[in-house]
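User: quick one, sequence for these tokens?
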């Protein structure tokens, strides 16, 4: 598994398309994808949005992430780093932020590679750059 993370609009998706071009047909977008089908994706973009959708449906995102790791250990997961900055006022947003952090930690722990992309520049946090 590979986790690509970093702030919003910093080139994470572009980086993944450059290094996993054969997977373009199996890219899933967390904003719109079917939850069950996403577990078979080669690449899941906007995983942080998928987590919000899971919470909205009262689905435990940590359990979902654990299952994704178990059944699809080769998946590339792209998610924004939302843990820095201002703490949200709304409780629902704080719960989402915490869930994104917990899921990101779970993915990173189980990933062979964790890449942070900032200003379009990748940095390997765990493992090597492809």
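Assistant:
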């Amino acid at each position: 598994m590979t986790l690509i993370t970093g702030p919003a609009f910093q080139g994470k998706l572009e980086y993944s398309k450059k290094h996993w071009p054969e997977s373009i047909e199996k890219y899933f977008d967390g904003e719109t994808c079917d939850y069950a089908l996403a577990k078979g994706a080669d690449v899941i973009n906007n995983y942080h949005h998928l987590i919000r959708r899971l919470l909205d449906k009262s689905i435990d995102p940590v359990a979902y992430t654990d299952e994704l790791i178990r059944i699809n250990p080769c998946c590339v997961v792209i998610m924004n780093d939302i843990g820095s900055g201002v703490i949200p006022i709304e409780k629902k947003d704080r719960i989402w932020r915490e869930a994104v952090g917990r899921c990101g930690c779970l993915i990173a722990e189980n990933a062979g590679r964790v890449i942070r992309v900032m200003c379009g520049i990748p940095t390997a946090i765990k493992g090597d750059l492809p």
